[in-house]
């Protein structure tokens, strides 16, 4: 907040103060104002100091939140049940997700899923394909093997050429059919209709035209009809087929998600006779290791932040914004205590058994990666329990941070401390405003008094000069 008073409204008056006298009344007024406003500098410094402390609390809160987020990941079962897959063979690819179980699977692909395809029996001249009309109005009804049916109304279509019909079909995605024109390179184009989804259930059962005899002659189709179709089937709809460890499976598509829990297959090709593809699903300890490493990183970053915020430089005599702060000390203590997890059963009893130890001087964690890897490999369930259990690390950190960061309906210690500091700033700003208001009034009064004094002195000087002149004249006349 500004701690000076504007003199713009009194500029003429200030410049006239002391005119006709030997006194620097304007300079004196400036010195008085500076003296009376000097306490505002102290108040502003205190405000800046409190604001710096609030900012430091914000840094502290961000660090604690990062630790909580990292601990929450360690509290998820999926962090310890992660698996990865490898495939031998080119006919399949696979991905794993939560719920996948380690195992080995031999996969033989016997058929790939494909969509139904129809094409017109007679080519249309390329020169007229985009302009030749199939008559006006009517409608096209497309029915699929799964029973779904969609009618495409052409009564308002401005274009009933081959391209216009193609556009009308493609503008109705619910019809389950995509249309295009294929050129034969000899001046003719064929209408091609392809099912938008693979599998026998999505095969085209029939295509009928009502109200347009010309178009009916080009689009009529009934699956399995011996005669009367103007469209012929160039490819029949087909389900994907494969065996997994000798068990036959089928799918409408080439992506299979429900054959093995947590595993998604993509079929890329038919397996050659006598061949096979092998899918191996194995545990992936890198996920657990990464989560533990991320927690250690977040925890150590918080410790570095606290050390910086609370440092004291004996040589320079400077201190951090949170040096000696009780709330910061409580945060550090609560999180250190949260690391004290213990299990009385199994082969892993504490974080130390995982290679996680605390430096007593810095408070930071160190991680022995080889020891952690060994524990995860040999005692995966015990490792998971130490992090995810009722009294595990994730639960301890959550409990500690509930007091630090707060929870629904309850303000945490950082928020409480920050709220108190905000009230302090408000009080200091009120004092500063009040002081400036008082000084403004004083300056206006001084300015008026100095103006009168200046006028009086000017008048007295003028009188003195006049009398001196008169006395001198009288002396000369004698």
State the share of residues found in helices, binned by percent. Answer: 40-55%
The helix/strand class is alpha+beta
Query: How widely separated are the two ends?
Result: 69 Å
Please give the largest β-sheet.
5 strands, antiparallel
Strand order of the largest sheet: 1-17-3-13-14
- State the helix count: 11
Q: Roughly how many Å is the radius of gyration?
A: 44 Å
Could you report the average pLDDT, rounded to the nearest whole number?
A: 86
**Which oligomeric form is depicted?**
single chain
Low-confidence stretches: 7-15
Number of strands: 23
Classify the beta-strand content into a percent band.
Answer: 15-25%
Q: Choose one word for the global shape.
A: flat
Description:
The chain is of the alpha+beta class and 478 residues long. Among the domains are: 83-112 and 240-283, no CATH class; 117-235. 44% of the residues lie in helices and 23% in strands. The chain has helices spanning 11-16, 25-74, 126-129, 162-170, 213-219, 285-309, 326-338, 369-378, 380-388, 393-405, 413-477; strands spanning 83-88, 92-96, 103-111, 117-120, 124-125, 139-144, 149-153, 177-183, 188-195, 204-210, 221-222, 231-235, 240-244, 247-251, 255-260, 263-267, 277-283, 312-313, 318-319, 356-358, 365-367, 406-407, 410-411. It has a five-stranded antiparallel sheet, with no helix packed on it. Strands 4, 5, 8, 9 and 12 form a five-stranded antiparallel sheet that branches. A four-stranded antiparallel sheet has the order 7-6-10-11.
């Amino acid at each position: 907040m500004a701690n000076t008073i504007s003199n713009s409204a009194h500029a003429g008056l200030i410049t006239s103060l002391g005119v006709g006298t030997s006194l620097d009344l304007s300079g004196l007024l400036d010195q008085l104002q500076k003296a009376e406003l000097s306490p505002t500098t102290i108040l502003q410094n205190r405000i800046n100091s409190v604001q710096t402390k609030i900012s430091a609390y914000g840094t502290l809160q961000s660090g604690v939140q990062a630790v909580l987020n990292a601990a929450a990941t360690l509290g998820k079962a999926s962090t310890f049940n992660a698996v990865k897959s490898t495939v031998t063979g080119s006919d399949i690819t696979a991905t794993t997700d939560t719920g996948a179980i380690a195992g080995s699977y031999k996969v033989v692909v016997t058929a790939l899923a494909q969509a139904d395809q129809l094409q017109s029996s007679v080519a249309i001249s390329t020169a007229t394909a985009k302009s030749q009309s199939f008559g006006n109005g009517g409608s096209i009804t497309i029915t699929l093997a799964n029973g779904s049916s969609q009618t495409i109304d052409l009564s308002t279509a401005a274009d009933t050429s081959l391209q216009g019909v193609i556009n009308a079909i493609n503008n109705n995605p619910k019809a389950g059919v995509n249309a295009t024109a294929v050129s034969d390179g000899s001046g003719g184009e064929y209408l091609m209709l392809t099912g938008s989804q693979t599998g026998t259930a999505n095969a085209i059962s029939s295509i009928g035209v009502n109200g347009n005899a010309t178009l009916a002659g080009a689009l009529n189709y009934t699956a399995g009809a011996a005669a009367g179709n103007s469209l012929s089937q160039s490819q029949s709809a087909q389900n994907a087929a494969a065996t997994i460890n000798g068990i036959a499976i089928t799918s409408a598509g080439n992506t299979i998600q429900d054959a093995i829990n947590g595993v998604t297959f993509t079929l890329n090709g038919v397996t050659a006779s006598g061949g096979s593809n092998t899918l191996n699903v194995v545990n992936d300890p890198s996920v657990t290791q990464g989560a533990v490493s991320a927690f250690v990183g977040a925890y150590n970053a918080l410790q570095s932040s606290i050390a910086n915020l609370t440092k004291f430089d004996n040589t320079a005599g400077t201190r951090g914004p949170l040096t000696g702060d009780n709330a910061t000390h409580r945060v550090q203590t609560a999180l250190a205590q949260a690391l004290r997890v213990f299990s009385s059963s199994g082969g892993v009893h504490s974080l130390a058994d995982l290679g996680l130890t605390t430096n007593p001087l810095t408070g930071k964690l160190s991680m022995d990666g080889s020891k952690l890897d060994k524990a995860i490999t040999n005692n995966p369930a015990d490792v998971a329990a130490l992090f995810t259990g009722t009294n595990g690390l994730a639960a301890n950190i959550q409990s500690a941070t509930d007091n630090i960061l707060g929870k629904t309906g309850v303000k945490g210690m950082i928020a409480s401390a920050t709220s108190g500091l905000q009230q302090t700033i408000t009080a200091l700003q009120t004092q500063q405003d009040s002081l400036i208001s008082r000084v403004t009034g004083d300056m206006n009064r001084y300015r008026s008094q100095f103006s009168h004094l200046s006028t009086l002195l000017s008048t007295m000087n003028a009188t003195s000069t006049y009398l001196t002149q008169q006395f001198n004249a009288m002396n000369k006349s004698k």
